[in-house]
Amino acid sequence: MKVLVTGAAGFIGAHVVRQLVARGHETYALVRPGARAGRLDDVRDRSELLEADLADVIRTGDLLREVEPEAVIHLAWYTEPGRYRHALAENVASLSASATLLLAAAHSGCRRVVLGGTCLENPVAPVRPVYDAAKVAVHRLSEGFASAGMSVACGHVFYLYGPLEDERRVIPSVIRALLAGESIATTSGLQRRDYLHVTDVAAAFATLAESSLTGGVDICSGLLVTLAEVLRIVGEETGHPELLRLGDLGTAEDEGSVSPGDLGPMRSVGWRPAYDLRTGIKETITWWNARQEAQT
Where are the alpha helices (DSSP H) in the chain? Predict the structure, then answer.
């Protein structure tokens, strides 16, 4: 199958490209012009790297007509750590670019689109940050494309971790500090979340593209754990639990999830997580350790 991946230079996107290549799909990795695409270095010879700004309506339309993908996995979005949920202009731009992509996909004859969604798409939330609202809007808009003969699924990603993650995020920050023998202060970590290794997330997106599922589909482990539990595992597996100053930064405002995701739909198409939490954290630590050793 010919598959186009947007946001291919990102954390999830790069892993999705690897999954598609491993499954034998003809894979096109779409990145922004001038974007750093180092995450794709080891698969450049097995996929085709394309550059385009999805905000450019003409270029996006031309590219989709040239590639004629049978499926599109749309993961491009603004995800700056600490800012993305409340960044008005950036989320509106991502929403607009997503609408442009959906239209271009329909006009190119593409019959399958998988959107990168979020577990934060809470339909009963009285007030949402703009990121959550924009993701909901794309999901709702995509439902209208069934009339153009295009089936669309929205993969609701829960909380993830793993190799290639932005080092500024919580789990990589703690891993890097402990591996360096440095103490690190965190919040109490009481928020409960459904965590999944990024390789499992990528496999889920590839499976969704191959399937006929439509609508919102949870990409999750189906289990809730506290952030504190995750960080304690990091401490144990790095051999430096004494350096973890859990609770020194007080309690986070985010209370986490009320319930885990629903594994049912993804199980129905043959996907299951390959990693349990400890195994996934251990592999992630090994990856960061090798990276830090290579930099010294």
Answer: 11-22, 57-67, 88-108, 130-143, 170-179, 198-210, 227-238, 264-268, 277-294
